[in-house]
Specification:
With 283 residues, the protein is α/β, with parallel strands linked by helices. The chain has helices at residues 6-9, 18-37, 42-49, 53-60, 68-77, 88-92, 98-109, 128-136, 144-157, 175-179, 185-199, 249-265, 269-281, and strands at residues 10-12, 64-66, 110-117, 168-174, 204-209, 223-228, 233-237. It has two domains: 3-92, Orthogonal Bundle (434 Repressor (Amino-terminal Domain)); 98-281, Endonuclease, Chain A (2-Layer Sandwich), CATH 3.30.870. Strand 6 (223-228) and strand 7 form a beta hairpin. Helix 7 packs parallel to helix 9 (144-157) and helix 8 packs antiparallel against helix 9. It is elongated and about 70 Å long. The protein starts with 5 loop residues before the first helix and ends with a helix. The relative contact order is 0.10. Mean pLDDT is 88; it is low at 1-8.
C-alpha cells in the first residue's frame, strides 16, 4: 500500500490534548515492544500488514492514532492473541477532536436532549453520507483527514440511541432544511428515511417547523439543551447570550421557555411525519 495510506488508516494527534497524547504514546510504545520482542523489523511488519513503514513509525512513536482495522492487522501479524486489538477501547476516548469528545461526554449522561435546527439537519439525525457531504462542503475547505475525523466523531454520538435507559430526545427541524438535497437526491432520500426511522423510537420525538409559519420563536437561530439527572443542564442558542454555552438556572430557563414555545408552534409529531413522507413521495 505504501506511505500514501497514512491518511486513510490513522488520524493525527492533537498536540494540545495532553491526556490524548499520553494515551497514544503509551499504546505506540506497547506495539513497538511487541514487534521488537519478536525480532521483527518495521519493513517486515509493513509487508505483513500491507501498510507503509512511515505509518508504522508514526503510530509506534505516538504521532498518529491508528484506526481499528490497523490494530486488527498488527495483532494478527505479531500473534498478539487479541491483546493489541483490545487497545481499541483505549483509543475510543482520544481518537476524536476534544470538542467532539466533550459533547459526546455530556450527551452520554443527559436524561433529556433538545434540539431546534434551522439550516442543517440535527447532527444526531444525520446519516453518514449526509455528514460527509456537509463536511466536504465546508469553507475554508477541510482536509480529507479532518472530514474523516468529523464524520467519525458525529457517528460516535449516535450511540446515544442505544443507551439504557434511553434519554428523552426531542428535535424540531425547519422544513426548509428537509427540502435541501445535500449530497444529491439519493443521499437526501436516505436522510429523510433515517429521520423517519429514528422518529419511531419511543424515546425520540421529531417535529417539523412548517414553512408557512411566518414568524415563530426560533427565528433567531438554533437551540441545543442538555438536562442531567441532578437537575443541572447546559444549553446554547444562536440568538441568546451571544451564542455562548450557558449553565446557570436563570439562563437555562430562558432557553427552555424559548424551546417550549418553538415546539408549541411546530407541527405535531404525526403531522410532521406526514410532511416528511410527502417529500419522499415527490421524487
Amino acid at each position: 500500500m505504501g506511505s500514501n495510506g497514512i491518511e486513510e488508516h490513522s488520524w493525527s494527534v492533537d498536540p494540545g490534548d495532553a491526556q490524548g497524547v499520553a494515551v497514544i504514546t503509551a499504546l505506540g510504545r506497547q506495539m513497538r515492544a511487541w514487534r521488537e520482542a519478536l525480532g521483527m523489523r518495521v519493513a517486515e511488519l509493513a509487508t505483513l500488514i500491507g501498510y507503509g513503514e512511515d505509518l508504522i513509525y508514526k503510530v509506534e512513536g505516538g504521532k498518529r492514532i491508528a484506526k481499528p482495522e490497523y490494530l486488527d492487522r498488527v495483532d494478527e501479524a505479531l500473534k498478539a492473541g487479541g491483546l493489541i486489538k483490545a487497545m481499541k477501547e483505549d483509543l475510543v476516548g482520544v481518537r476524536y477532536p476534544k470538542e467532539v469528545r466533550a459533547i459526546w461526554k455530556m450527551e452520554g449522561r443527559a436524561i433529556e436532549v433538545c434540539h431546534y435546527s434551522t439550516h442543517n439537519i440535527a447532527g444526531l439525525l444525520q446519516t453518514e453520507a449526509h455528514m460527509r457531504a456537509l463536511f466536504e462542503g465546508r469553507q475554508p475547505s477541510y482536509t480529507a483527514e479532518e472530514v474523516g475525523q468529523g464524520v467519525a466523531g458525529r457517528m460516535a454520538r449516535r450511540s446515544i440511541f442505544e443507551r439504557v435507559p434511553a434519554p428523552a430526545i426531542t428535535v424540531v427541524q425547519e422544513e426548509a432544511s428537509l427540502r435541501r438535497r445535500i449530497g444529491g437526491t439519493m443521499v437526501w432520500r436516505q436522510q429523510l428515511e433515517r429521520i423517519l426511522e429514528v422518529s419511531e423510537l419511543r424515546s425520540v420525538t421529531v417535529q417539523v417547523m412548517p414553512m408557512d409559519c411566518e414568524v415563530h420563536a426560533g427565528m433567531s437561530g438554533s437551540i441545543e439543551l442538555l438536562k442531567f439527572a441532578d437537575g443541572t443542564g447546559v444549553g446554547r442558542s444562536e440568538g441568546a447570550f451571544y451564542g455562548q454555552t450557558v449553565s446557570s438556572r436563570k439562563q437555562l430557563q430562558v432557553l427552555e421557555m424559548q424551546y417550549g414555545r418553538i415546539r408549541s408552534q411546530a407541527l405535531t409529531p404525526g403531522d410532521s411525519r406526514v410532511v416528511i413522507e410527502k417529500l419522499l413521495g415527490e421524487t
